[in-house]
Specification:
single chain, about 160 residues, mainly alpha, Rossmann fold, about 0% strand, globular, TPST-like, transferase, P-loop_NTPase
Length: about 160
């Protein structure tokens, strides 16, 4: 869950108190709800929802879907972004950006469950109320650890509403 994983990667986000799970979940929910509503308003021909777990669990299928949506041809290079970081004609990264150490790595599963077991029981009990978008997006708000396989499979098979 992105709202919780950011704390472990030492990423700072303005307005987020990374010591408060409740506040992070509430702010995450608000941000995701806004994006989701904007995507629905724009329609499926203008906005594509891409789930992080779909990207890391099914990178080929997910990236094929993204490139098809963008009407771009498939190229295996998209599966190996790390080869093009800080290379001539590649992508330049800032040395001071804290998340750069993650971007230079191949797509990996590390962030999927790094937060599991860290959320206090009282916050887990209130998860559905703190972050109702979890349910809207098809997640079980009480699953800890979550069952990403089902949402990753669903995300690679369909487009957003």
């Amino acid at each position: 869950m992105a709202a919780l994983a950011i704390g472990w990667w030492s990423v700072t986000i303005t307005g987020f108190d990374l010591t408060s799970y409740r506040q992070c979940l509430t702010k995450w929910n608000h941000a995701v709800e806004l994006m989701y509503q904007q995507c629905k308003t724009m329609g499926p021909d203008k906005c594509l929802v891409v789930r992080y777990e779909a990207l890391v669990l099914r990178p080929r299928a997910t990236l094929r879907r993204v490139l098809a949506f963008l009407q771009l041809p498939w190229h295996d290079a998209v599966l190996h972004h790390e080869r093009y970081i800080n290379q001539p004609n590649g992508v330049a990264l800032s040395n001071v950006e804290r998340s750069s150490d993650q971007v230079v790595r191949p797509v990996n599963l590390d962030a999927l469950d790094k937060w599991v077991g860290q959320i206090p029981a009282d916050v887990r009990a209130d998860m559905a109320e703190l972050a109702p978008m979890l349910s809207v997006l098809g997640y079980d708000p009480w699953a800890n650890p979550p069952r990403y396989e089902a949402t990753a499979d669903a995300a690679t098979e369909r487009r957003p509403p």
